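We treat protein structure as text, and this decision shapes the records that our systems exchange. Such a record has a labelled line for the sequence and another for the backbone structure tokens. The record that follows is passed on verbatim for readers who wish to inspect the format:
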Amino acid sequence: MSQDDIYLLSIALIVILGVVFAIARWKVHPFPALMIGALVLGLWAGADTAAVLKSFQTGFGGTLASVGVLLALGAMFGELLASSGGAERVSNALLDAGGTRLVPWTIGLVAMLLGLPLFFEAAVVLMMPIVLTVGARLARDPGGLKGNPYLLAGLPVFAGIGVMHVLVPPHPGPMVAIDAIGADLGSTLVIGILLAFPVAILAGPLFTYWIAPRASASPPADLVERLTRRDTQFRTPGIGITVATILFPILLMMGKAGVDLALPAGHPVRHLFEFIGHPIVALLLAVLLSMFTFGFFLGKDTKAVGKLLGDALPPVAAIMLIIGAGGALKQMLIDVGLGRTIANASQLVELSPLLLGWFTAVIIRLATGSATVATVTAGGLMAATISVHPELNPALLVLAIGAGSMFFSHINDAGFWMVKEFMGMNMPDMFKTWSMVSNIISVTGLLFVLALSLVI
């Protein structure tokens, strides 16, 4: 590595540690702390002021245009779901299915099923009403479970969604890596699903049972109250219509993935699903549907439904700004060249192809905060490896890269701030819980891939 590369790495490390220290030690609000960190990073790295501001605006705006919109639509959907009593219906069904002691298992399985077609952020916002409702019920009646009730309900969900996001196509990261490396989609899908279950069990229920008594989560009281209360003036939706409404956006996104695989480019049905199956459009349509299934059909008028939609936004406004600032920091890290520097340096390390693919994705993930960017970049860098190692199963290389892309979620990851603010955790508890969940997914995913490489 050149002296300039080492200098850039040192700047990034100092800025990231400074932001963490400011938030954890000095109790600076994450929004200004992340803003200052992003701007200082760009200026210190030598970028001119115009480029720094452009990177900040691109990262902030791009993140809010995707994650922020999903968060707002998810909050509206969750408000209608909770106020109708639908979230309570689903949480009761989960508790009845396996009993209180098995909540981490049942809710984790539901999260994996929902996470199959969904982006991480979209799946989180859809699951939060259920997580908070189950957590509130566990707080009243733990039923023998030990530890923080919201961690018992939430960590298995985040683990299940995270595993599916990085190991199972048709998520964008694995799909691009499959194309770059030339892996077979079917075999990658089958092996990815087989790996996802043991990895999710270790990172989800088993780790949750251990860490829940050792960490704390306290979701914002107004958010819990809003997403767990039920308006008793009106009828409650049946479990069938509730589940169907929750599954509606998921089916639209699954439809998009299906037609992408089955139909040629330019087909009119494919064009249709590329639009309605996009996460933003699918969630918007879900909000429109829920206005009827969780509103008008239960006897609420347009004024009542409109008030619920408006009341959903203030509790998530701060979360949206924090996530946007995190996106700005991530973009600044990318634009100053840190990701490229680290990716090139990783190629100098003498490792087996599977370990090198995992390691490359790890360091790009640490630099950029994006699992998708890490998977796409590492997949491109490792594409030539297949021709040099014909004995290597390409599907295993894709999965090793996917596992590496999940390593150590921290302050430049929008998902980190989404989990932190929804769950009301401080920085030390975030590193003990969600960051460790992402590490377990990454390391155990690699170990299972290495084990499979001995037999296939």
About this structure: Residues 49-84 form the longest helix (36 residues). The chain has a mean pLDDT of 88.
